[in-house]
User: What shape does this take?
Amino acid sequence: MESALTARDRVGVQDFVLLENFTSEAAFIENLRRRFRENLIYTYIGPVLVSVNPYRDLQIYSRQHMERYRGVSFYEVPPHLFAVADTVYRALRTERRDQAVMISGESGAGKTEATKRLLQFYAETCPAPERGGAVRDRLLQSNPVLEAFGNAKTLRNDNSSRFGKYMDVQFDFKGAPVGGHILSYLLEKSRVVHQNHGERNFHVFYQLLEGGEEEILRRLGLERNPQSYLYLVKGQCAKVSSINDKSDWKVVRKALTVIDFTEDEVEDLLSIVASVLHLGNIHFAADEESNAQVTTENQLKYLTRLLGVEGSTLREALTHRKIIAKGEELLSPLNLEQAAYARDALAKAVYSRTFTWLVRKINRSLASKDAESPSWRSTTVLGLLDIYGFEVFQHNSFEQFCINYCNEKLQQLFIELTLKSEQEEYEAEGIAWEPVQYFNNKIICDLVEEKFKGIISILDEECLRPGEATDLTFLEKLEDTIKHHPHFLTHKLADQRTRKSLDRGEFRLLHYAGEVTYSVAGFLDKNNDLLFRNLKETMCSSENPIMSQCFDRSELSDKKRPETVATQFKMSLLQLVEILKSKEPAYVRCIKPNDAKQPGRFDEVLIRHQVKYLGLMENLRVRRAGFAYRRKYEAFLQRYKSLCPETWPTWAGRPQDGVAVLVRHLGYKPEEYKMGRTKIFIRFPKTLFATEDALEV
Ligand code: ATP
Ligand code: MG
Assistant: This one.
């Protein structure tokens, strides 16, 4: 027999707005815990879906599950990702408005899995397009390819996406997927040349070595053993039990064909992958004058062939730097350290540009073939955003700075859109809006991105003073310019007490999600992202068709400095925000339950952090500001009409009048509810629970 506990006590509420004590974080977490224990990984905050990674296959994504959620009302079935998928799709079809699903959460929380399930849902349940049915396969098959090149095993996630991704799926007027487009953000290219202990380089390297055919490896001059490659041994974990590189390679090979790669293109692509490995094995020795000389002839030979460049040019470019002074070219020899730096910079540039090329190539294959036809105009777009969550590590650098800035922007957008849609609903329903207290993080976005006075501007300015500026002069300039900002602190600016927790080479930002201390070491270098001129020239002469598309001669003649990394990122984020603003938003907030990647473990401290980072309490407060619950009159009447003799078994009049009769019969007090144009709004969960409980008697 079920204990005295009601189901609500046992499995919690399926929408956080129904929590009696909605401002209590403890109550919030307790609700998550109860549901997690029952394998109920999904819970709503109004229209927002909160998801906890179960780290086990719950068998909840089958075709039957898809069918169960098709065409039903959001609140009438248990919370599920497919409910969001279907709601979004129906809004797209009936209102013909573009939609965007924004998926956020920290590394390992389940963002990419959610994105894949959503795509699967659309691929399986949407009608097939009349022409170009291949698009559906391409949409699905672009994933393994991008993951091979953009994902890696990290300490947090065996399949961690090391880039941000926004994908548009285009639907025709019949609701069939007819095209797609991908935008990628900030690939973590430092991983190409270095991995922390317990981490790997990008999957594709291991896949090729494990799964590539003998003949291919021979042509590329590769050995099977990853230990042979310096770029693959730093993390000391080439083998991962949860990953089968060999079978993954087969999947990737097939996927490449589906997304329109010719055999030649595959060959060119693999030549580049191999050349990165060979580059890593290039060694230098110092001559009598301490100048670097290449000592690994064999590697150089393979590189020359795979990249299609002149051997002597490449050798010279790896060991010299070309400077143009007063119109004259000077070659200045590099020492050992500089040569290693140049080699690694080349490897990173080759790899990251190839990744960008790959995204472009995939986009060509996904481009709707109907673009020119009249039906094109009537397509609608569904966007999926799978982007890195807030990051706070022991040691935070330029990468975390960019990622956290991105989260600040998205949080701002979220607050703006949520408040707006709440306000709009109240207005549409003719109910007075009650202002909500919330923290507007615009002040932090400005601190980072403002012209002249923002951190990125100051960083760029320092990057314009080569030879003079250092990471520390950058910090000083920050201190001089920003000084008394409530969200910014350094050792010098801190009071006695706080000073102890800050080193001299650090600055601290008070993000909406909490404090993060960044070390300035490497900021200038990473923002400049310099590739010596003669290496660029060498690559521009490459006969590998992919390389020659990645390195363009205009880069050499162009007098204008290329945009810095931070500025490029800022501009791509502004563009992303515009894209998202033009669409109807939906949100999936992913939570990682423990750091051990294990099922059944609910680590409260870790989860509490994420609830904070994801702004869930803030979200709940905004949603609950006025009313806990709102429902269309028809749906409300249908569910509770049996509780009132006048509405049971049928109510002949307007549903709104039926509901009025019903709630009067149930004894609702005037302050407990409001009648809108199409919906009833109920202020407190207990009113609803009492009604719900009455049904069971
Ligand atoms: P990152 O930011 O590092 O890319 P992520 O949020 O994209 O992280 P995922 O790669 O989606 O994280 O998930 C990590 C792992 O967790 C998956 O490989 C899978 O093993 C497991 N996982 C995630 N979501 C689910 C789910 N809904 N059901 C079962 N397992 C899941
Ligand atoms: Mg991911």
